[in-house]
Amino acid sequence: MARIDFDKYEGFYARRTQGLRSSVMRDLMAITARPEIISLAGGLPNTESFPVKTLVKITHDVATEDSAAALQYGPTEGFEETKRNIARVMEAENTLVDTEDIIITTGGQQGIDLTTRTLVDPGDAVIAEAPTYPGAIPSFCSFQADVTQIPMDDDGIRTDLLKNELRRLEKAGRRPKFIYVIPNFHNPAGVSINLERRLELVALARERELIILEDNPYGQLRFEGEQLPTLYSLDDDDNVIYISTFSKIISPGIRLGWMVAPAPLLAKFNLGKQAADLCPSTLAQMVVNRYFRDFRWQDYVEKTTDVYHRRRDAMLAALKEYFPEEASWTRPRGGFYIWATLPGYLDTTDLLALAIEQESVAFVPGAGAYMDGSGANHMRLAFCAVPEERIEDGIKRLARVIKDQMALYKALKG
Ligand SMILES: Cc1ncc(COP(=O)(O)O)c(C=O)c1O
């Protein structure tokens, strides 16, 4: 985007735009698209492995057999056939859903936006994990949510700390509008919530009448370990809103995701979606439905997960070999991301500038995953979008920058 020095529209903006914040991942996209950069920044699905012949066949068939319908408006909540296919995807995670409870969205991202826009007035409390999905932050900011982030460990959100926070809010006469969690292969932390904590979260929601927003784009991309039940499937009291997407199991370019929610909430989401964009793309839905009709969608998920698995292994091996021993990192059992922690005196935003300039390598600085700009000594390393050899090279280059900065700090501090 062009640089803005003077803004003559200053007096026209609504007050709520003052808190608008860009997602750090979006900001980095322009820089990391440069071919000389090894980008460990973008959580870009490996669209290169999607079979071209399959795309040619399904788009050709839709165009020749269903052209008029594909080019027309459709229902706000999406086509029944798309919802049936979504139910099949969720069933693969042992989650049974009634198609009446589904609304199709423009990616999972719109689900976060619709939830926040529907539930949050300025200053309302929302709880998220620390770190949280950097792309959720612009939604939280645009509706002026008062977000508290609860630390995580290798088993996901610390439910003990969550309870403390709920008690603190209760004392102040407040209750969070929702608790936002990413249960599987967290973006950016790489960890998953263990079974005990999933049960605890659902029980807490029941006891305290809370809403959980479960965002699960990565659940199908498992390399190892047992599949864990979704919070939605564990909940028997209508306290969970579930979001997922076709972005990671087919393609983000088709921009189709979905929400599953109890009827009253769904009706509000439908109104919000009408206001935002009328309906999901009919063309994209028909392409997806053709794909489900004529191909085994799980074949591609298996194939692409295999690629991510090898890339994760390459990144873990490179981290072990090249990163300083003062650093630590998570070991994801699926998904796209590793979350690395460096000594507290390093700031990964400064480090990013050096890494790009000196070594042509990029990552997402930790601060982008925190509402208050903390998390400066962390970094998100995405292994999804880079071939194994480049991953090793990228980590090696990054390690050089980190070690240089550590040496400099130690020299200055004696
Ligand atoms: C946790 C999480 N939620 C939501 C999204 C949004 O995905 P999309 O809008 O492409 O479905 C992403 C994308 O990376 C994500 O990681």
Write up this protein.
- The chain is globular and about 70 Å long.
- It is an alpha/beta fold and 414 residues long.
- It contains 14 helices and 14 strands.
- Helices cover 44% and strands 13% of the residues.
- The strands form three sheets. Strands 2-9-8-7-6-3-4-5 form an eight-stranded mixed beta sheet, sandwiched between helices. It has a four-stranded antiparallel beta sheet with strand order 10-11-14-13. A two-stranded parallel sheet has the order 1-12.
- Helix 2 (52-65) crosses helix 11 (282-294) and helix 12 (297-322) runs parallel beside helix 14.
- It has two domains: 19-43 and 299-413, Aspartate Aminotransferase, domain 1 (Alpha-Beta Complex), CATH 3.90.1150; 53-294, Aspartate Aminotransferase, domain 2, CATH 3.40.640.10.
- Strand 3 (125-130), helix 6 and strand 4 (146-153) form a beta-alpha-beta unit.
- The chain starts with 23 loop residues before the first helix and ends with a helix.
- The structure holds pyridoxal-5'-phosphate (PLP).
